[in-house]
Amino acid sequence: MQTSWVDRYCRKLQTVAYVKTYFSCFFCCLFTKISYLCRCKDTDFSRKRIKTAQKMTKLSVNINKVATLRNARGGNNPNVLAVALDAELFGAQGITVHPRPDERHIRYQDVRDIRPRVTTEFNIEGNPIDSFTQLVLEVVPTQVTLVPDGHDQLTSNHGWDTIEHRQFLTDICQTFKAAGIRTSIFVDPAPKMVEGAKVCGADRVELYTEPYASGYKVNREAAIAPFIAAAEEARRVGLGLNAGHDLSLENLHYYHELIPWTDEVSIGHALICDALYMGLRETIQQYLKALQ
Asked: Are 37 and 29 in contact (CB under 8 A)?
């Protein structure tokens, strides 16, 4: 039977409608899939970015040894302030100084000169005797680290007993925190000392890492074990975590690899020694790489 032109026209319309519906469904599904994949990609990127941010550990360069070299000859060479500013320029995320009463390296006036010029975190560490406390309250650094060293002590060699000295540390923490200064207590890698620092009202603890550094070559797994325990306790009680003393390019990466939630490492002696050979810029870059 011969179909009329009306029937043929209707069939064409049905075909066109079918094709339009097919492609409409196809592109709708395609765009939905693309949108889903983009959201997944953005989510994965965000997760990676968050994960990276959580693991970021700041490098604070201790410039005491620069001051020691300057003081050996008198005058102002090397210029401590210039070194601090250059260290920041080369990538350091903080500057640390440790003024002692005899001013054998960093002087109190150095602290006053450096404070208004640095743009990264400024950390002052030392024994909170009256003159030190007055200096810290005068310049108001980002952070003060309380270290129990004597006036004639060559270098720091132990942390606070936060249980025995609880009342003293509690009072001094309150004094600094009232001035808006983040307070960290230098402790040995013992969970009970970390817990004691929390009771004293500290914001952070700095783990005294000389035992780790001295034991690293012998048995690094055994050397790091007490530091992991102390670091986990800091995380459990909600304290920020710093580390310092004899950390170097040799042992820093392993320390950070096992305790990646460390907020900050303060490094001076080894870093300045390395800078004699590699230069300050390259040395700081190498230390930053070790923290990745």
From this structure: no
